[in-house]
Design a protein that fits this description.
The structure is a single chain. By secondary structure, the protein is of the alpha+beta class. The protein has one domain (19-149): Carboxypeptidase-like, regulatory domain (Immunoglobulin-like). Helix content is 18%, strand content 29%. The protein has 3 helices and 7 strands, in the order H-H-E-E-E-E-E-E-H-E. It has a 4-stranded antiparallel beta sheet, with no helix packed on it. A hairpin with a 6-residue loop joins strand 2 and strand 3 (75-76). The longest helix is centred in the first third of the chain and has 18 residues, at 25-42.
C-alpha cells in the first residue's frame, strides 16, 4: 500500500488465536489500551503541511518532492491542501513543495523549499506519551502565484 498509494497500513495481533474468546477482549483491551492510543498519536509523526493560496486562502493541491535524504518518495496534497510525510528521527530532510490548482491549470505557483530535522527523538520520548512535541513538524504554506524561479522564497523549519 505504501509503494502503490503512499499509505501506511499495519496489522496488530494481540492474541495467538485468530478469534479469541469474547470473554478475553476486556483484558486484552486493558493490557493494550495505552500503547494502542500512543500508536495512533505516532501515526502523525513527521511533516504535516497545509498548502493555501496566499490571496484567497483557498486550499491548493501540491506535490512534495524529497530532495534529501536520497531515495525517499514524495507525496501529494489532497483536495484540502493537506499533505503528510513520515520522517525518521535524526535525519536531515530537504523538501520542495510545488503547489497547483487543478481548477486553474494556467496559474503557476512558486515552489517552496522546507528543511527539517526531528532532533532528540529518544526511545523514551516516542514510547512515553505526551503528544507529538518534538516528533512533528507542522507548517502552513501560503503559495504565491506566478513567481519566477529566481524570486522564489526559501523557508526553513
Amino acid at each position: 500500500m505504501y509503494h502503490a498509494l503512499g499509505r501506511l497500513h499495519i496489522t496488530l495481533e494481540l492474541h495467538d488465536a485468530k478469534n479469541p474468546p469474547a470473554a478475553s477482549l476486556p483484558d486484552l483491551w486493558a493490557a493494550n489500551r495505552q500503547p494502542m492510543l500512543r500508536l495512533m498519536e505516532l501515526s502523525h509523526m513527521g511533516l504535516r503541511v497545509l498548502v493555501l493560496d496566499a490571496k484567497t486562502r483557498a486550499p491548493l493541491r501540491a506535490n512534495l518532492t524529497v530532495v534529501t535524504p536520497p531515495g525517499v518518495r514524495g507525496t501529494t496534497a489532497d483536495e484540502r491542501g493537506y499533505l503528510f510525510k513520515p520522517m525518521a528521527p535524526d535525519l536531515s530532510y530537504t523538501f520542495v513543495v510545488q503547489p497547483c490548482d487543478p481548477s486553474r491549470p494556467s496559474v503557476s505557483y512558486g515552489a517552496v523549499e522546507l528543511k527539517g530535522v526531528m532532533l532528540g527523538t529518544s526511545r523514551e520520548q516516542v514510547l512515553g506519551g505526551g503528544g507529538l512535541e518534538g516528533l512533528s513538524v507542522v507548517k502552513t504554506i501560503l503559495a504565491e502565484e506566478g513567481l519566477e524561479p529566481s524570486k522564489r522564497k526559501k523557508r526553513n523549519s
